[in-house]
Design a protein that fits this description.
Oligomer: homotrimer
Distance between the termini of chain A: 19 Å
Shape of chain A: elongated
CATH topology of chain A: Jelly Rolls
Order of helices and strands of chain A: EEHEEHHEEEE
Helix content of chain A: 25-40%
CATH class of chain A: Mainly Beta
Number of domains of chain A: 1
Number of strands of chain A: 8
Chain lengths: ~130, ~130, ~130
Amino acid sequence: MERLSVTTSRREEMVNVTAEVQRLVAGKGWSEGLLYLWCPHTTAALTVNEAADPDVVRDMVANLARLVPHRGDYRHAEGNSDAHIKSSLLGPGLTLIVADGRIQLGTWQGVFLCEGDGPRNRQVWAAFLASR
Amino acid sequence: MERLSVTTSRREEMVNVTAEVQRLVAGKGWSEGLLYLWCPHTTAALTVNEAADPDVVRDMVANLARLVPHRGDYRHAEGNSDAHIKSSLLGPGLTLIVADGRIQLGTWQGVFLCEGDGPRNRQVWAAFLASR
Amino acid sequence: MERLSVTTSRREEMVNVTAEVQRLVAGKGWSEGLLYLWCPHTTAALTVNEAADPDVVRDMVANLARLVPHRGDYRHAEGNSDAHIKSSLLGPGLTLIVADGRIQLGTWQGVFLCEGDGPRNRQVWAAFLASR
């Protein structure tokens, strides 16, 4: 199991980690198979979405906060229940297809760590299963 | 990596692709393992839900549009931020267990491509990892 | 493919199944690879979130019910469209990294079956792909 470190700078943000993930795949010589990424935190998540126009990420962060606001009907004393809920809605795990030594993404897709209760130092775990 | 093509006919809909996926598995002779499906688009997604009563899909499409409406607090100029957000909520990837040469689903489950900004021609990528 | 049984006791709840999953991994002697869990139901799901403070789960169940209420704009006659929608938002499948014979989770993470239309007897299917 490999580990990537991601430093977030705001309470809520999406950090593009596509290049770091691709660098890991290249560095390990992983060629054909499935890469599994895991966020070992309960107030962050992993997702894939458009990496071209930063307004997409802005709209996503703003609207997730509208759906699951920071303050609301919460009993958890740490004041971050919104981040816990968003973590499960987006999901802590992400599988990516690896072919020809590269993660396979659509034209507009990038891999994002979704921070819900930052700024923090976060980890992303990675495991690879070769197809041949 | 294999590719399926899916043509959608409305802006928002869920297209049952279970038969196409099963046909791919049978055609490739994939018998035991994990099938990974990937939607390379940022305004569509993959999910599994009830394929028996079409009202389930209708209720899902209608209520996702209620939660993340087409028009709202969006800055992305293409007017499809709702589709981007729903794509991450539902998720672009889907793993299915394959046993005895068939995808293993519960009695009521079907595999759906969730269109959020159609009508369009969509792709679903597929990778298989054999368990033995 | 292995099967776990989970009995739920309320209409909506999250049942911590971490120990059962770990017991399965140990009992099968699965050491290094990816464990894939699948919920073959369309009104339940699998997720990972904080297992320490039960208020986190309480806040999640309450707020998911706020976002997708039991009664609403639904046509599906069984009265459980909310559970179908939440199933797709949380997702029916969950991949876990297995290393040294144990599922690898962050400090606060636990694996939960999310019941949306209980009480019922539920199944969780499990498939393992070894990495070596």
